[in-house]
Design goal:
two-stranded antiparallel sheet, 2 helices, single chain, Porin, mainly beta, 18-stranded antiparallel beta barrel
């Protein structure tokens, strides 16, 4: 009887940690997307609704705690405008006839374990946000990755992260695909990474990360972030980043070729790049002004993880596209990441809380890239520019507390680039209902 009672007590204790610390939310996102191609290409105008149900358990009690994260996603295409759903986009998947799918859904699960200050996760709902890999959430649904990763904070002021991923599910897809680079048709199921963030002082953080996409590239990242308070309501932030990327395995062979973002490559199809980024931000009360510069080396474009291009093998687009990378030049339309390109950029942001309107923020940014080398290496250098504007408002109290609205608009123009001139507008409404 005593043994039985002890067993029941342990089970209740474990159950308490698992359930009492759990969270369940329903995220609603209504998204209107308008891409006006000024060069005469097909325009895109679509409207859709997303439902995202997340259950995040707590951890069971004990030396090693266990838990699980569950996710269900549903997308509904509300309107696309006749002829305004290109069968090559990552906003909604396409049916076999090239039209937009009316409804699509998917689900996933991630098991997790915690020991001391270390957490391990394995599943297909991972959304890493690291210098060498950022899960994209810029459309209707989030991009998710499949594999395992850990985060350890056993040492004060040091966070160590690592793992291995094999597949990804796109922002408008129900299926997972392998991993690749832009322009390649083959895939890899092995993206290995590790890195550390060290808070050297209260103001200074140093970073190092290594990543390897088997048969495509190896990448080293070094980062420095320093925030210097100037007074009670003033600060100056320095953000320095450096990427060094080289070829790996079959990279350069047919099917494994990197398109170097539509630009020049010393060895066509191969990865060979160094990219340096410097950003400086001055903040004074409600005002924030950021200025920066990015320099891409001459031998090839900056590389980042992409999803395998399986459209040709399946016969239709299922929304695999949409990858982010760790730079301000990952703008609304362009990426400013071709060989030899020098990009100067800036952004001004104002927080209207200073005028008594809490929850309202607005920003305007400008990027100007030049000296990108011509694809053949002998033609005139190309140039491009983009202006991005953004307004965000989140209701601060009342029955609609947390309801958010985002309006983004980007104007892109290029000279000799492979990207079409485009005006793009996004209107997004977000609301999250919390059950637990």
């Amino acid at each position: 009887m005593m043994i039985a009672g002890s067993a029941i007590g342990v089970a209740q204790l474990a159950h308490a940690g698992f359930v009492e610390d759990s969270k369940m939310t329903l995220g609603l996102r209504n998204f209107y997307y308008d891409a006006d191609n000024r060069d005469g290409g097909a325009d895109q105008r679509e409207w859709a609704q997303s439902f995202k149900l997340d259950y995040l358990s707590g951890f069971t009690e004990g030396t090693v705690g266990f838990g699980v994260d569950l996710q269900a996603l549903v997308g509904v295409h509300l309107d696309g405008g006749r002829g305004h759903h290109p069968d090559s986009n990552s906003f909604t998947p396409s049916d076999s006839d090239g039209s937009a799918t009316h409804e699509w859904s998917s689900g996933g699960a991630t098991a997790k374990a915690r020991f001391s200050q270390t957490e391990l996760r394995y599943g297909n709902t991972l959304t890493p946000s690291l210098p060498i890999l950022i899960a994209n959430d810029g459309r209707l649904q989030p991009q998710t990755y499949e594999g395992g990763m850990f985060t350890s904070r056993e040492i004060d002021n040091l966070t160590i992260t690592g793992g291995q991923l094999g597949h990804a599910k796109g922002r408008a897809s129900t299926n997972s695909t392998g991993l690749s680079v832009s322009g390649a048709t083959e895939e890899s199921n092995k993206f290995t990474f590790a890195g550390a963030d060290w808070k050297a002082t209260k103001q200074l953080t140093l970073q190092y990360y290594y990543a390897n996409l088997e048969d495509f590239y190896k990448q080293h990242f070094f980062g420095l972030i320093h925030v210097q308070p100037l007074s009670e309501n003033q600060s100056f932030k320095t953000d320095l980043r450096y990427f060094r990327s080289t070829s790996d395995g079959a990279n350069g062979d047919p099917g494994y070729r990197f398109n170097n973002n539509g630009g020049y490559a010393k060895n066509p199809g191969e990865v060979d790049n160094s990219t340096a980024i410097a950003m400086f931000t001055y903040t004074f009360r409600s005002h924030s002004l950021m200025l920066g510069h990015q320099r891409v080396s001459d031998d090839g474009g900056l590389v980042w993880l992409s999803q395998a291009n399986v459209v040709n093998g399946r016969g239709r687009n299922e929304g695999e596209g949409g990858i982010s990378f760790y730079s301000f030049t990952d703008a609304i339309v362009g990426n400013f990441a071709r060989a030899g390109e020098n990009t100067t950029f800036g952004q001004y942001t104002y927080d209207f809380a200073g005028l008594g309107v809490s929850g309202l923020k607005a920003s305007i940014g400008y990027l100007h890239g030049e000296d990108a080398k011509a694809v053949n290496g002998s033609g005139p250098d190309t140039h491009e520019w983009e202006t991005d504007m953004r307004v965000d408002y989140v209701v601060q109290d009342g029955p609609l507390k947390g309801f958010g609205t985002t309006l983004r608009h980007g104007t892109y123009r290029g000279g000799g680039t492979s990207i079409e001139d485009q005006d793009q507008t996004r209107l997004i409404f977000n609301y999250t209902y919390r059950f637990l």
